[in-house]
Design goal:
Elements lengths: L1 E11 L7 E7 L4 E7 L1 H13 L8 H11 L5 E9 L2 E8 L5 E3 L2 H11 L3 E4 H7 L1 E2 L16 H13 L3 H22 L5
Parallel strand pairs: 4-7
Antiparallel strand pairs: 1-2, 1-7, 2-3, 3-8, 4-5, 5-6
Helix pairs in contact: 1-3, 5-6
């Protein structure tokens, strides 16, 4: 089963302004899935949200999508299927053929916005990762396991500098957990 999502907000992480966040909400606007992104993707989405579609119609993503659509390749959707090492496993899927194209989650959401593609998340993933959505809230909860390792190390540095040792401890524990998991993943079974 899957849950249809839509982009509800784009912002920066309060504790680390160099990290962007995209908030996707379900159809009934009660659950939110947060995806981190770099500032480039955040800025690309922010400009489009602020200025509307006519402003960016000559930009590369819009032009490339029009070319693909005019060539008959317009039956696509975005599927968010899982999570591994802080990264959502995301595919651009051709619904006509079933062909899947792995894509970074943040780029997939930008493409979905540009091309008006539907976005779906696996229900089990939503049950584990989504947080309650409050449209007028000043912040949104985000599980630490959705943050890429490089970004986590940056957040750890920021937390230590800010003397937020409780947050630093949680981040350190997540990094250690991933290191252990990555080592376990690399062990090959005996034959």
């Amino acid at each position: 089963m899957r849950v249809k999502l839509r982009l509800a907000a784009v912002s920066n992480m309060r504790t680390s302004p160099h990290i962007g966040m995209m908030t996707l909400v379900d159809d009934i606007e009660c659950r939110a899935l947060v995806i981190t992104c770099d500032n480039n993707v955040r800025e690309q989405l922010s400009v489009r949200l602020d200025r509307g579609p006519s402003f960016s119609r000559k930009w590369l993503p819009e032009v490339m999508w029009r070319v693909l659509r005019d060539m008959g390749a317009d039956q696509f959707e975005i599927q968010i299927n899982g999570l591994m090492a802080g990264e959502y496993l995301t595919d651009l899927v051709c619904t006509a053929t079933g062909q899947r194209f792995p894509i970074r989650a943040s780029d997939a959401i930008l493409l979905a916005y540009v091309a008006n593609l539907p976005v779906y998340a696996d229900r089990t993933l939503m049950d584990r990762q989504a947080s309650p959505w409050k449209p007028n809230a000043l912040s949104v909860a985000m599980p630490v396991n959705v943050i890429d390792g490089k970004v986590l190390r940056s957040l750890l540095d920021d937390a230590v500098r800010a003397e937020n040792y409780e947050l630093a401890s949680k981040i350190r524990d997540e990094l250690k957990s991933r290191e252990k998991g990555e080592r376990d993943d690399m062990i090959e079974p005996e034959i």
